[in-house]
Design goal:
mainly alpha, 10 helices, single chain, two-stranded antiparallel ribbon
Length: about 240
């Protein structure tokens, strides 16, 4: 318990679990209601752009520069903005980001399904990139909150170490990543149910886990971590 107190609230596993739950919701939402795509990562868009160019569909291929550019912009800005935000001395960058995510997702709930899906897709690309780049380590464990590939890999590695070497730490690490996979999966299930029930405003379900995270971060920034606002989270 004493070791855990050394981590900032923005690095806590519970915070990462809630962010991962929200990311699963975003992925299911854009797939179910906003064009049948996943916007949390860009591997598919890069491949589709390559296929379009390889098929000499130049205009179609150039379209993918828009979501890829939004993801790039999210990473770029989330790397540039923490320093000026830190100089304000009021809240941490992580806190501002989660508040911004809440505002964007709240606004998306008002966008009619009849509007071009690309508008919502680009917004989700942007905030997913910022979240991915900002929240990097959960209590010292490198982790991505917006997609599952690394989590699945780490589960396999951890169980392999446990079987081959009797590595208890590897086993516990595998269980941790398995839990994060469960959060992402659960978010997808909940979002899909909400999409069937509420249509476009279903994205507001994300405001529950993100609201909890925001409340925890604001409380920490204004109270127990008030003197640690200049401390960078691990991995930065």
């Amino acid at each position: 318990m004493e070791e855990k107190k050394n981590y900032l609230v923005c690095e806590r596993r519970s915070v990462f679990a809630l962010l991962t739950l929200s990311a699963g919701m975003m992925g299911a939402y854009t797939f179910n209601l906003r064009g049948g795509v996943f916007c949390n990562a860009q591997t598919a868009n890069v491949v589709l752009m390559a296929i379009a160019f390889g098929s000499r569909n130049w205009l179609g291929g150039c379209y993918y520069l828009i979501p890829i550019g939004a993801y790039f912009a999210g990473a770029f800005l989330s790397e540039i903005l923490p320093s000026p935000m830190r100089r304000l001395g009021f809240l941490r960058w992580d806190t501002y980001l989660v508040a911004f995510e809440c505002l964007v997702l709240f606004a998306i709930g008002f966008v009619p399904l009849s509007w071009p899906h690309q508008l919502v897709q680009v917004l989700v690309n942007f905030i997913a990139s910022m979240q991915y780049n900002t929240f990097r380590q959960a209590e010292g464990i490198p982790m991505a909150t917006t997609f599952c590939t690394n989590q699945l890999r780490q589960v396999g590695i951890g169980f392999a170490k446990a079987v081959r070497k009797g590595d208890r730490e590897g086993f516990h690490r595998a269980l941790f990543f398995l839990g994060m996979l469960g959060c992402f999966f659960g978010g997808g299930v909940l979002s899909t149910l909400a999409c069937h029930l509420f249509s476009a405003p279903a994205i507001w379900l994300n405001l529950l886990p993100l609201g909890i995270v925001l409340a925890r971060l604001v409380h920490a920034d204004l109270n127990e971590e008030k003197d640690l606002l200049s401390q960078k989270p691990a991995g930065h």
